[in-house]
C-alpha cells in the first residue's frame, strides 16, 4: 500500500486482529444487588446472557433495566452513592471486583451503543480509530484497515468514504448511531450492550440499526434494553423481564412472549402497565 | 386601584431601564473621557513615536511607552505560562478524578481565593516570593545581585492571583462536556487521562482559549499586587531577573504628581486609554468565543 494512499481508495480486507478474543466468554451475574443512596434498584439478580444471541431486557420504566446494563461494564460507577453486592462474570473475570486497570480491558470486551448517538469530538476516522489508539494500536496501516472494515460492517463506508476527516457531528442522527456501533465494534468486543439504541432514531434509521443487530449476532453477543415490545418481539432470541429491580421471567422470545408463566409478565405484555 | 398598580409597573420598568443604560453609558463615558484627556499629547507626538520610544523622561517631554508595554506583556505572559498548566490540571483533577467530597471542599476555597484583595497577594509576594527569588533562585541562574523585585516575582504573584479564576472557569467549561460523551469514551476502555486529554480537553478547546483571553485581560489590568513586587524601573526587561514597570503601575505610581508638567497627565491618560481599549477588546473576544461555544 503506498504511504499516502487516499483513504477513500482503501479496500475492506481481512487482517489479523490485534486482540485475541475467542468470543465465547460467558457473561453472567450471581445474586447481583445494587443500591443508589440506599435505594435498592436491583435485587438478587442471577442471569446468564447467552452468546451469539440477541437478549432483550424489557420491563416498565424505572424497573432497573438500564442500571443492570450499566453494571455489566461498570459505567454505573459514574453515578454517586452506588453500592453493589454479588458478582458479574465475563469469563473468569469478576467485573464487580475489578480494579480500574482491569476495567479498561473489560470495557473493551463489552461494547456500548448509547441511547442517543454521541460521536466523540473528532473526525469520522478519529471516532473509529479512537478505541484502538487508546489500547495501543499505533500503526497507521492497521488503523486504516480497522476503520474501513468496521465502517463497512455497519454499512456506512460508501456514505462517508469521501469525508472521513470531517467532524463526526456532521452526520445524520441515524448515521451517527451506526458510527457509534462501528466505534464499539472496532475494539472487537465480545458483548455489545445497547441501551434503547433506536429510541432517538427515525423509523427508517431504527430499522437499519435493528437489521444490523440481527446480522451482527453471528459474531457478537448482543444485550439490548428496549422500551418497545414490538422491537423486542421482532429481534429478540432471549428475553429478560424485570419488574421493580427483580427478574420476573427469563426464557427464549417464544417462551416469554407467547407462553408467559408469570402473571406480571402477562399483564405487562397485554399492556396493563408499561 | 388598578391604574395605580399599572402606573407603578411603568415607573419601575422606566427606572430600571434608566439605571441599566446609565451603567452601560458609564463605560462609554470613561472611554471618551480617557481619549479626550490624552489628546494633548497625541497632538504633539505621534502615537507610534510614543509606543515605540524607549526614553521616559517627563521633565524633558520624553514619554516613551515601550518599556512599560514590554513590562506589561512580560508580566502577563509569565503569569499565563505559569498559571495555565497548573489551572488546567487542577480543573481536570476536580472534574474527572476527584470525589464529590473533595469538590465540595475545594470550590468554596477557590471562591475565597478569588475574592481576596490584590494587596494581600502583593504583601505575600513581598514577604515570600521576592526574598525567595533574591536569596535562592536568582543566585543559581545569574551572577550579579538581584533584589528579587523582578518581572518573575510580578509574574508569579499575578499567576497565583489569576489561578482561582482560571480553575473556576475551566471547571465550568469541562462540566459542559456531556456525560454521554464521557460514558462513550469510558465504554471503549479509556483511562481517565485518555478521556481528559483526547475528549474533555479537545471538546473544551475553544472554551479554554476564551478563558485564557479573559485571564489575559484580567492580568493586563492588575495593578497593586504587581506594583508591589515588580521593581518599578522603566526598562525593557532582558531576563526574568530584571525589574520592570507595567502600565497600570505607571499610572498608579505617578498620577497626582504630574501637575507641574503639561503633557505628563495626558501621557498617563493615554496609558490608561491603551489599557482600557486592550482590556475591552480582550473581553469582547473572550465573550464572542464563549458565545460560540455555548451555541
Instruction: Report the end-to-end length of chain A measured between terminal Cα atoms.
Output: 55 Å
Extended strand count of chain A: 10
Structural class from helices and strands of chain B? mainly alpha
Rg result of chain B: 23 Å
Shape, per Cα inertia axes of chain B? globular
CATH topology (level 3) name of the largest domain in chain B: MetI-like fold
Structure description:
The complex is a heterodimer of chains A (274) and B (295). Chain A has helices at 65-72, 100-109, 124-134, 140-153, 157-160, 173-185, 203-216, 229-235, 253-258, 263-269, and strands spanning 27-36, 39-49, 54-58, 82-90, 93-94, 110-113, 191-195, 221-225, 238-243, 246-252. In chain A, helix 3 (124-134) crosses helix 4, helix 3 runs parallel beside helix 6 (173-185) and helix 6 runs parallel beside helix 7. The model of chain A has no long low-confidence stretch (mean pLDDT 90). Chain A is an alpha/beta fold and 274 residues long. Chain B has twelve helices and two strands. The longest helix of chain B has 43 residues, at 2-44. In chain B, a hairpin with a 4-residue loop joins strand 1 and strand 2 (62-63). Chain B folds into two domains: 2-44; 49-294, MetI-like (MetI-like fold), CATH 1.10.3720.
For the structure shown, list the relevant keywords.
heterodimer, A: 274 residues, alpha/beta, Rossmann fold, 6-stranded mixed sheet, 4-stranded antiparallel sheet, 10 helices, 34% helix, B: 295 residues, mainly alpha, MetI-like fold, 2 domains, two-stranded antiparallel sheet, 12 helices, 78% helix, globular
Amino acid at each position: 500500500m503506498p504511504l499516502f494512499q487516499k483513504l477513500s481508495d482503501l479496500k475492506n480486507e481481512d487482517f489479523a486482529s490485534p486482540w485475541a478474543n475467542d468470543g465465547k466468554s460467558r457473561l453472567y451475574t450471581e445474586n447481583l444487588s445494587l443500591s443508589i443512596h440506599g435505594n435498592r434498584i436491583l435485587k438478587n439478580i442471577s442471569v446468564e446472557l447467552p452468546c451469539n444471541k440477541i437478549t432483550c431486557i424489557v420491563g416498565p420504566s424505572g424497573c432497573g433495566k438500564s442500571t443492570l446494563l450499566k453494571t455489566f461494564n461498570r459505567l454505573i460507577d459514574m453515578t454517586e452513592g452506588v453500592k453493589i453486592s454479588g458478582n458479574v462474570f465475563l469469563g473468569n473475570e469478576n467485573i464487580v471486583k475489578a480494579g480500574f486497570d482491569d476495567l479498561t480491558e473489560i470495557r473493551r470486551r463489552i461494547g456500548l451503543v448509547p441511547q442517543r448517538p454521541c460521536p466523540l469530538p473528532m473526525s469520522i476516522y478519529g471516532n473509529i480509530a479512537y478505541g484502538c489508539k487508546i489500547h495501543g494500536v499505533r500503526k497507521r496501516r492497521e488503523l486504516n484497515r480497522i476503520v474501513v472494515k468496521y465502517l463497512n460492517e455497519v454499512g456506512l463506508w460508501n456514505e462517508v468514504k469521501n469525508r472521513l476527516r470531517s467532524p463526526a457531528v456532521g452526520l445524520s442522527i441515524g448515521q451517527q448511531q451506526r458510527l457509534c456501533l462501528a466505534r464499539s465494534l472496532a475494539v472487537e468486543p465480545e458483548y455489545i450492550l445497547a441501551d434503547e439504541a433506536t429510541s432517538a432514531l427515525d423509523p427508517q434509521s431504527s430499522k437499519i440499526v435493528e437489521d444490523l443487530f440481527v446480522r451482527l449476532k453471528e459474531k457478537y453477543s448482543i444485550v439490548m434494553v428496549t422500551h418497545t415490545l414490538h422491537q423486542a418481539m421482532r429481534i429478540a432470541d432471549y428475553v429478560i423481564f424485570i419488574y421493580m429491580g427483580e427478574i420476573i421471567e427469563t426464557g427464549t422470545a417464544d417462551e416469554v412472549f407467547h407462553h408467559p408463566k408469570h402473571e406480571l409478565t402477562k399483564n405487562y405484555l397485554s399492556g396493563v402497565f408499561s | 386601584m388598578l391604574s395605580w398598580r399599572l402606573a407603578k409597573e411603568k415607573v419601575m420598568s422606566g427606572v430600571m431601564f434608566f439605571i441599566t443604560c446609565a451603567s452601560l453609558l458609564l463605560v462609554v463615558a470613561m472611554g471618551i473621557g480617557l481619549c479626550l484627556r490624552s489628546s494633548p499629547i497625541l497632538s504633539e507626538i505621534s502615537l507610534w513615536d510614543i509606543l515605540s520610544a524607549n526614553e521616559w523622561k517627563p521633565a524633558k517631554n520624553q514619554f516613551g511607552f515601550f518599556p512599560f508595554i514590554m513590562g506589561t506583556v512580560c508580566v502577563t505572559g509569565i503569569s499565563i505560562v505559569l498559571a495555565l498548566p497548573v489551572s488546567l490540571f487542577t480543573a481536570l483533577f476536580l472534574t474527572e478524578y476527584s470525589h464529590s467530597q473533595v469538590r465540595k471542599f475545594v470550590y468554596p476555597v477557590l471562591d475565597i481565593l478569588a475574592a481576596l484583595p490584590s494587596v494581600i497577594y502583593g504583601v505575600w509576594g513581598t514577604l515570600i516570593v521576592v526574598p525567595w527569588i533574591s536569596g535562592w533562585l536568582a543566585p543559581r541562574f545569574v551572577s550579579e545581585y538581584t533584589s528579587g523585585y523582578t518581572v518573575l516575582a510580578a509574574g508569579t504573584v499575578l499567576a497565583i492571583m489569576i489561578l482561582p479564576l482560571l480553575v473556576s472557569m475551566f471547571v465550568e467549561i469541562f462540566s459542559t462536556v456531556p456525560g454521554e460523551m464521557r460514558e462513550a469514551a469510558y465504554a471503549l476502555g479509556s483511562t481517565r487521562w485518555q478521556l481528559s486529554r483526547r475528549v474533555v480537553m479537545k471538546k473544551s478547546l475553544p472554551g479554554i482559549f476564551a478563558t485564557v483571553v479573559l485571564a489575559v485581560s484580567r492580568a493586563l489590568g492588575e495593578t497593586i499586587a504587581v506594583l508591589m513586587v515588580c521593581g518599578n524601573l522603566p526598562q525593557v526587561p532582558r531576563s526574568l531577573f530584571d525589574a520592570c514597570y507595567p502600565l497600570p503601575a505607571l499610572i498608579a505610581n505617578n498620577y497626582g504628581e504630574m501637575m507641574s508638567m503639561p503633557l505628563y497627565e495626558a501621557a498617563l491618560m493615554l496609558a490608561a486609554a491603551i489599557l482600557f481599549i486592550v482590556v475591552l477588546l480582550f473581553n469582547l473576544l473572550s465573550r464572542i468565543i464563549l458565545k460560540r461555544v455555548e451555541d
